[in-house]
Automatic annotation (TrEMBL):
It comes from Novosphingobium tardum. The lineage of its organism: Bacteria, Pseudomonadati, Pseudomonadota, Alphaproteobacteria, Sphingomonadales. Pathway: Amino-acid biosynthesis; L-histidine biosynthesis; L-histidine from 5-phospho-alpha-D-ribose 1-diphosphate: step 5/9. The keyword Nucleotidyltransferase does not apply. The gene is hisH. This is Imidazole glycerol phosphate synthase subunit HisH. Residues 7-204 form the Glutamine amidotransferase domain.
Length: 209
């Protein structure tokens, strides 16, 4: 029986691009959904996100029982989970863009502005950059060294180094991926990262943490 892969649609992600990438990477099917019942029954869950942390958090919480369904399926039911870009940032304790906004609190940390320490460094961080795996983290085996496409002005400052699965360098180290238990989040866009991104998605589809 084919797995149910739930791609969470809460109006704050480039859903079609992510869906197409997952299918290209080998998914049998992708269920685009905002239905908590579907999320609770899913074998794997992907949460995309683009835009500002606060607006994405508000959009996610605006769907009745969706956050609770995700929490129950992932943190209690141990379903593999992938957060992409702001979908990864929402795993944090809080974001501080335009005031403090609570995140999901699945991985302790804060989403804060990238500091411009060098005038030559552009913010937002946009374009291709190296991804350097940190092999101590849960799920770190999913991340391979390579180049991925980034687009973000805020970054995930994790409280626990062991939950940082990969780093990138943009005028200093920035977290490129976080992982814990069955949870993986990537700051870059796999759906825009060509062969590197498709390879990551293929490994996620086969991941049995």
């Amino acid at each position: 029986m084919a797995e149910v892969l739930a791609l969470v649609d809460y109006g704050a992600g480039n859903i079609q691009s992510v869906r197409n990438a997952l299918l290209t990477a080998g998914a049998d099917s992708v269920t685009v959904t905002s239905d908590p019942a579907v999320v609770r029954a899913a074998d794997r869950i992907v949460l995309p996100g683009v835009g500002a942390f606060a607006s994405c958090a508000a959009a996610l919480r605006a769907v009745p029982n969706l956050v609770e369904a995700m929490d129950e399926r992932v943190r209690v039911g141990a379903a593999p989970f992938l957060g992409i870009c702001v979908g990864m940032q929402l795993l944090a304790t809080r974001g501080v863009e335009h005031g403090e906004t609570p995140g999901l609190g699945w991985i302790a940390g804060e989403v804060r502005a990238i500091e411009r320490t060098d005038p030559a460094i552009k913010v937002p961080h946009m374009g291709w950059n190296d991804v350097a795996p940190m092999h101590h983290a849960d799920g770190a085996g999913l991340i391979e060294p390579g180049e991925a496409y980034f687009l973000h002005g805020y970054h995930f400052a994790a409280d626990e180094g062991r939950e940082v699965a990969a780093m990138t360098d943009h005028g200093g180290g920035l977290v490129a991926a976080v992982a814990r238990d069955t949870i993986l989040g990537v700051q870059f866009h796999p759906e825009k990262s060509q062969a590197y991104g498709l390879s990551l998605l293929a490994r996620f589809l086969q991941w049995k943490p």
